[in-house]
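G., the chain you wanted modeled:
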Amino acid sequence: MTNFPNGFLWGAATAGHQIEGNNVNSDWWERELTFPGMELSGDAVDSYHRYREDIDLLADAGLTTYRFSLEWSRIEPIEGHFSRASLAHYRRVIEHCLDRGVTPFVTLQHFTTPRWFADDGGWTSPKAKDRFLSFVTEATSILDGVEWVVTMNEPNMQAAIMTAMRRMAEMQGGQWQSPTVEGDSADSGAAHSEGAEKKDDGAQQHGAFLQDADPEIGRAFVDIHHAARDIVRARTNAKVGWTIAAGALTAAPGGEEKLKQIRYGKEDVYWEGSRGDDFVGVQAYSSQEVDANGLVPHPPHPDNTLVGTAFRPDSLAMAVRHAWEVSEGVTILVTENGIATADDAQRIRYTEEALRGLSETIDDGIDVRGYMHWTLLDNFEWGHWAPTFGLIAVDRETFVRTPKPSLGWLGEVAKRNGLV
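Predicted structure as tokens:
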């Protein structure tokens, strides 16, 4: 029996735009309408109306934590005008979690922003920080009883997207305005970890499209995160941090220096920025090599996932160890880990191996407080419907939910607080 610490959080994670449906004021909704090759989120899986059923399925299986996001574009559809109805909706989600004995784990910003924010420069605007902090302040009004709050989901992937878009604009002779960093928001110089793995932006984030992230953008995000952290601490009793996409990168022969370069911009700026947080969320899916030219494509293999990444459950422990080292001992929660597969037996095999590796990191003295699987429901994966990460299948015509064996399996792990 492999046991986990008492009070360990066991759960699953979701993101508003991927499950709610009809987030028409979101920048991602607009992107779906304009970017070639992107599928539409549409009704998604209608979790906006069916959240009680989703939370009940999670709780009935034996899981104890539900990570979900607040959709900024619903709460503030027009700058400075906050929707009381939307705030009340998310308060009902929180209360249903509490009624079912489920710990609500709230993410304030999960990739998406309001259209008005994106159309006026997004994160590059000099007004970006104040605009986000205004939203954060309003959002804290509904967080009574919430113990865990994430300010931003994977800012390093947002920065990688911004870096790629800037380069494309420069290639086309366009102009780019870098975000402004206020104050000394992060240490400069250090070597960091990881690379590309995760969902995408029309082009898959699993590929070289998002190979680099500008550290300057990272330092700007750190500054915004710290300011949001201060607001959450002042206005709630919650523990606060952010989540980072971890690539669990390794160096191929001759790729050591390139690895340090990629790691720093894509991860280490953010792990460093988590120093002083109550926790940091580690989000790992696979591992990838870096040679002298950059990220090495995942070699073809029958076990590769539906998004083309290698079957590497050991990446979770690799990422946790790196996060612990660079953050200098900030408490860790695994806020996403999973696999895009149509074979649920492979999902169970992946998750079991990942959890065994995670247990070893705890045995080595790393403070890990919980594990949240990505994801609860098969959902809209940022421009695509084909990749299935969910513990629950969803019929997109009828919205009928069908739990997979993996949900029951993970629920039993949670009930035992350990692996047999």
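The longest helix spans residues 215-235.

Shout if anything looks off.
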